Amino acid sequence: MLDPFLLMLIFMLLLFVAMNYFGKKKTAQLREQRMAAIVVGNSVRTHSGFFGTVVDIDGDTVTLESPSGAETMWHKDAIFGAQEPPLAAVEDAVEEDGAVDGPRPEDRTQ
User: Which of 6, 38, 66, 109 is deepest in the core (most CB within 10 A)?
Assistant: First the structure.
């Protein structure tokens, strides 16, 4: 019969190998998803939080256009993935007469 310490050592080694294998597999899958998102015309987000539209791809360099129209160059590894900018919807912010919603000066109490 094997020593319990040896069995535990073998179990820990197998656990380490399995975690390493599945971790690398998941990392490779996420990288493939990120690289598939880098297509001209897609909206993407970088790891630093910059949102832009892919304008050009030249090797490992990706040119992104910001909503203001400025173009910046980024490395492919800096792209987090495809994501639209989370812009706030402007609904019910302006009344029909053009006034902004909110308390009016005549409604305030002193």
Answer: 38
Residue 76 identity (one-letter amino acid) = K
Instruction: State the burial class of residue 43 (Cβ atoms within 10 Å of its Cβ: 0-12, 13-18, 19+).
Output: middle
Contact between 60 and 75 (Cβ < 8 Å): yes
Q: Is 17 inside a domain boundary?
A: yes
**Residue 73: which CATH number?**
2.30.30.60
Per-residue CA distances from 56 to 31, 49, 70, 106, 108 (Å): 20, 19, 13, 55, 54
Question: Which pTM was predicted?
Answer: 0.57
Residue 18 lies in a domain: yes
pLDDT at 93: 47
| Strands of the chain, DSSP E | 43-46, 51-58, 61-65, 71-75, 79-82
Residue 106 in any domain: the answer is: no
With cut-offs at 50, 70 and 90, classify the pLDDT of residue 81.
confident
Residue 91 is assigned to a structural domain of this protein: no
